Q: What sequence folds into this?
């Protein structure tokens, strides 16, 4: 089977499993898991922040960040395609009692001008704009990425206006291998950063929330309240350390594979509206009278799994468990639809 459903489907490679099985562990609720502590220190140092918090999922790191940065009746500003809006069950309202101000960006990306126009004036009858969230790379936006030069004016604006800036960096390393921007430069732009270890980096479970000590102290209490305090989580953290040490540079291969899939799509007039392929996500439409379902059935009967992103829209995601041979085969299957 060739699984292009998501980059979350990867299984630990043997060396990662080895690292997990030989991890030293303790009770992380008491700060006593040495491997979790090492992972948190490593991630914080990479981004030039003071500390970090290991959590079960990227949804949890984002939700904890939103809760930590806001008060009820505040408002978060983000792109209308954001994961925090479209794929986290409306958790911003449920967990934090806040409103959301959406911006119609471009492939999931927003600009400082748009953010500036979205910030609400201080009035009794309006929610208070207190947080901006950027997503890099953009998921529903099709794997597009921000450069540091695009982020800097947004970061400066948030500073000037007293808003916090959080990065949903579920696929941040996919962006950084393309832009060449560093983790330290990126860290300096944001008050908090969430990264996923369980996407392209190939760990089975886990995300990190990164920030300063006071922020993470508060975030740690909220993690516990959400039921995310884990005990011998070092077995999972060991996979995260392995992922950060071994699986960042290879993301370029996934991007190359995505571009190859794009070439096959462009060869067949059954498809249209192929979105720019910037990283490891390929989004395109199936031309009428056929639709996403007919293509997914064709793919499935040939051993390829993908997902529908709308009635005529299909998404393919490349990752660690998709080899060059599998890409060659998937290209043939896409061309023969
Ligand atoms: C996957 C993802 C998350 C977090 O997802 P979990 O499945 O909860 O780990 C957050 N933001 C973006 C953009 C994502 O793609």
A:
């Amino acid at each position: 089977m060739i699984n292009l459903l998501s980059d979350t489907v990867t299984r630990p490679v043997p060396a990662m499993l080895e690292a997990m099985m030989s991890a030293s562990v303790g009770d992380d609720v008491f700060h006593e898991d040495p491997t979790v502590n090492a992972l948190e220190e490593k991630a914080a140092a990479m981004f030039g922040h003071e500390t970090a918090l290991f959590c079960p999922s990227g949804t949890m790191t984002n939700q904890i960040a939103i809760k930590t940065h806001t008060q009820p009746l505040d408002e978060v500003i983000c792109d209308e395609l954001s994961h925090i809006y479209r794929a986290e069950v409306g958790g911003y309202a449920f967990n934090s009692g806040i409103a959301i101000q959406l911006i119609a960006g471009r492939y999931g990306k927003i600009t400082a001008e748009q953010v500036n126009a979205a910030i609400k004036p201080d009035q009794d009858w309006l929610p208070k704009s207190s947080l901006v969230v950027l997503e890099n790379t953009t998921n529903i936006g099709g794997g597009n990425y921000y450069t540091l030069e695009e982020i800097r004016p947004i970061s400066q604006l948030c500073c000037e206006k007293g808003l916090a800036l959080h990065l949903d960096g579920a696929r941040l390393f996919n962006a950084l291998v393309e832009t060449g921007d560093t983790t330290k430069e990126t860290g300096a732009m944001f008050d908090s950063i969430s990264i996923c270890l369980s996407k392209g980096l190939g760990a089975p479970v886990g995300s990190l929330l990164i920030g300063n000590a006071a922020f993470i102290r508060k975030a740690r209490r909220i993690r516990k309240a959400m039921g995310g305090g884990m005990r011998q989580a070092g077995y999972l953290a060991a996979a995260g350390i392995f992922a950060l040490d071994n699986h960042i540079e290879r993301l370029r291969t996934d991007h190359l594979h995505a571009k190859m899939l794009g070439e096959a799509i462009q060869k067949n007039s059954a498809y249209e509206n192929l979105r720019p392929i910037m990283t490891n996500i390929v989004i395109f439409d199936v031309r009428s009278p056929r639709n996403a379902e007919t293509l997914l059935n064709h793919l499935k009967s040939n051993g390829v799994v993908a997902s529908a992103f709308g009635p005529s829209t299909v998404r393919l995601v490349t990752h660690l468990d998709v080899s060059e041979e599998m890409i060659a085969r998937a290209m043939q299957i896409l061309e023969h639809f």
Summary: Residues 221 and 229 are 9 Å apart (CA to CA). The radius of gyration is 20 Å.
